[in-house]
Specification:
single chain; 112 residues; mainly alpha
Length: 112
């Protein structure tokens, strides 16, 4: 995985943090952490999308965020488990992986 896709992955992880933070923040410190996670996530996404196809980059970013948020809510915060939810998440992951696999970048862009 090249550096730009690594930035998208890390941005997606920070998206999980800030989306969960929007629901569970309750004081100045937790809101501050949520705001920092938003800034880091958006900065990494903007940097990566300047060198990668924007549509695919955004689809991968939101796929990571959505999948991670739903799974974290179920495992950590007691959100009810539903088989239909799991199947839809698997479909989302399949779509994101498919987009990533068929997206090509120019060799000169990959070197940067």
């Amino acid at each position: 995985m090249n550096r730009n896709w690594a930035m998208v992955f890390i941005a997606g992880l920070f998206e999980i943090v800030w989306v969960i933070g929007l629901k569970h923040s309750h004081n100045m410190w937790t809101w501050g952490g949520t705001i920092i996670a938003i800034l880091v996530s958006m900065d990494l996404l903007i940097r990566a999308s300047s060198r990668l196809p924007v549509g695919t980059t955004y689809a991968v970013f939101t796929g990571i965020g959505t999948t991670g948020t739903v799974i974290t809510e179920m495992l950590v915060f007691g959100e009810p488990f539903k088989l239909s939810k799991l199947l839809l998440i698997l479909l989302l992951i399949a779509g994101v992986v498919g987009l990533k696999m068929i997206t090509t970048t120019k060799k000169s862009e990959e070197v940067q």
